[in-house]
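Design review, sub-item: ligand-bound model
Attendees: FS, YL, KQ
YL presented the inputs for the 1,3-dihydroxyacetonephosphate complex:
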Amino acid sequence: MRTPIIGGNWKMNTNRALGVELARAVVKLAGAQGGVQTVVFPPLPYLLAVGEAVRGSAVQVGAQDVYHAEKGAFTGEVSPGMLVDCGCTWVLAGHSERRHVIHEGDDMVNLKLRAALHAGLGVILCVGESLHQRDVGETNHINEKQTRLGLREVRPEEMARLVIAYEPIWAIGTGKTATADDAQDAHWHIRAVVRDMFGSEAAGAVRIQYGGSVTGANAQSLMAMPDVDGALVGGASLKPDEFGAIVAAAAARV
Ligand code: 13P
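KQ shared the predicted structure:
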C-alpha cells in the first residue's frame, strides 16, 4: 500500500508573514489527517521561517528548485546540501514552469534530480505534455521520455525517495483538470516505464501524484484511481481550506 503524498507548491507567492501563517494553517488542517504525507514548497527565502512554523508537526518542507553542484562559483544558485541544512527534506525537479519558462532541459533536470537524491533529499520529478502534444496523441510518449531521461542513472536504492508528478501543462493554473480516467491512464503508463527501468518492486512502490488544477472538489475522484497516489497542488495550496480538503480526500483513500 502506497502512502499518499500531497504537495503544496506555493510557486512565487506569499511573503514571509503570509507563508508562516499558511504553514501554521496547514499544520492544523493537514496535520490532523493521518496516513498522508504532506509537504509544502515555499519560495526559497522563506524556507527557514516556514520550517520553524511546521516544526514538531508531520508537515514537511521542500524547495521548488535546486542546483546540481555542491558549492562554488554559481551565482544565485542553491545546492542540495544547503537545502538539507535549512531543514528541507524534498525538492521538485522538472516542473513545467522551469522546463518552459526557464528553459531547463531533460539533462539539467536529471543532473539536479541525481544531486538531490545523492544529498539525501526526496525528489518529485514532474512530467507532462502540452495541449498540442495531447491533441496529437503524444501524451504517453512525452511522459515516457521525460521519465526515462529524468531517471537516467538513478540508483535503484534511491527510488524509495523518488516521487513522480504527472502534471499536464494544459491543466496547470487553467481550471481544466484531466478526468480521473485520463489521469489513471497516464499514471498507469508512467508506472510501466518505471517497471521497465527499475523492475516490478520499484514500480509497485513508486508514488505518482497528479497535478493540474486540483481542488477540494475534484480531489476525491482523482484520488479514487488506483494509480493516483496523491496530488501536487498549486493555486489551491494557497487556500488552507481547499488544501485541507485535498489532504482529507487523500486520507479517505487510505
Ligand atoms: P495548479 O494547481 O495551480 O494548476 O498548479 C499545479 C502545479 O503546477 C503544481 O506544481
